[in-house]
Design brief:
The protein has helices at 10-24, 37-49, 58-86, 90-100, 104-115, 119-144, 159-193, 201-210, 214-229, 231-234, 240-250, 260-271, 275-278, 284-324, 330-350, 353-364, 368-392, 403-436, 445-454, 458-485, 498-503. It has 507 residues and is mainly α. The chain folds into two domains: 9-37 and 272-507, MetI-like fold, CATH 1.10.3720; 51-258, Orthogonal Bundle (MetI-like fold). Helix 3 (58-86) packs across helix 8 (201-210), helix 3 packs across helix 11 (240-250) and helix 6 packs across helix 7 (159-193). The longest helix has 41 residues, at 284-324. The two termini are 44 Å apart.
Length: 507
Amino acid sequence: MRLTMPVPGYRGISGWFALAALACLPVADLHVTTLHPLADLMRLLGGLVRPDFPAVEGWSVVYTVAFAVLGVSVGAGTGLALAIPFARSRTVRLACAALRSVHELFWALLLMQVFGLSATTGVLAIALPYAGICAKVYSEIIEEADLSALRVLPPGTGAVSAFAFARLPDLAGRFADYTLYRLECGMRSSLVLGFIGLPTMGFTLESAFRQGRYAEAGALLLVFYALIGTRRLWVRGWSVPLLVVGAAIALPPSVGHADVGPSLVRFFTHDIVPAPLRAGDGTPASLWAWFRPILTEQILPGTAQTLILAQIALVVTALGALVLFPLTARRFAGPVGRPFGRVLLVVVRSTPEYMLAYLCLQLLGPSMLPAIIALSLHNAGIIGYLMGRHADAIPYRADAPTGLDLYAYETLPRLYGQFLAFLLYRWELILRESAIFGILGVTTLGFYVDAAISELRLDVAVVLIAATALVTVAVDAFSRTLRRTLRINDLPTRLSGPQAAACGEGG
């Protein structure tokens, strides 16, 4: 008699994740160390209520948009080229996975060693991971497209010609929708790059918070939200070439160091080469003696803290999304409350997690708590917004109940599979962000990466970044396995069509 393992259902998977988060709580650092967090919060809110718009540095806004436009343009263009062989080439898939598994901040910290604090660093830090992300999503869009146009092509038509004339016209709209969302992500990434010294809005925002200029900080936040909220007005088909040319002209005057060539050679031939090899001792024993303390004192504890942070944030995100999505659903919020709920969730999801964590850090002090709050708010806003859109599409029966009964017995059971699909999809992204919060002082893998780069131990930094990428890829693979096990792998989780475009979600 053949025994088969029972397949876990929605309840089983949800229970496992909840128990894992509960098990992480006793070992997580959740302390509040500031003396007056409420008073600090009120000062921050006061800055939003009475913003000082004249204090906003105009060039920081221009640089934020310029880095995003050029970074996304290069990344999307490269991603489109990689998307064509993506499904057929394992090498391309592995290269794209490596690119997208490293966060923009980590790319920027490495690129700064060659290009310094320049526009080249900012543009490439966005373009490299976005190339991997776009290649994956564009490839999936291509695979899902109608193939009828290919069947009427004459025999012998080349692959490039077939794609350009038979497939691209049908796919262009979906590519444009996804790329528009990716531009929103690029602006968030561009702002965050300011926290490590690049001249974007994040740089002036950090300075304003450090010096207690909350009115200026509030104005910067409102300007950023306005940029995100109006992107569909100023990003049009006819305006894209103008934006790209204008962004290139508006970049900071110092594009890089005069000695970029020697710096690049030194980076690859010396800086990131393990120390024993640089000393001429490449024996396995010496390499293990160099790597062992990195593994035991940095990779293992950093990975554990990253997973703990991500697991707690994932479950809090789930709870937050279940609470928030009725705010944007017509049957729950009504015609009056629904617009306010949608604006609230759009603001929450438009705020970069890193910036939210920085703000919470000023209010609560250094611990995992600011990072958990930031990750949970941002991702619950995204999933809640999407769930509200799906709830509006449910065909309720005429005698459907109202209130809590409608939520618990009619709506949530129908949406729970889609909810888990969104949540498992965001898991990899939550882990990716958890790693970089080490730059803010949380002892995740990013904490050790930042320390190694500060000490100019770039060989150690590259090993730690590679470990971060491997953990991210492993979680992504596990997430795909769970989605396949639950038979929710084909539910929409990205921006690949008109309905999803309206939701504003992406890869």
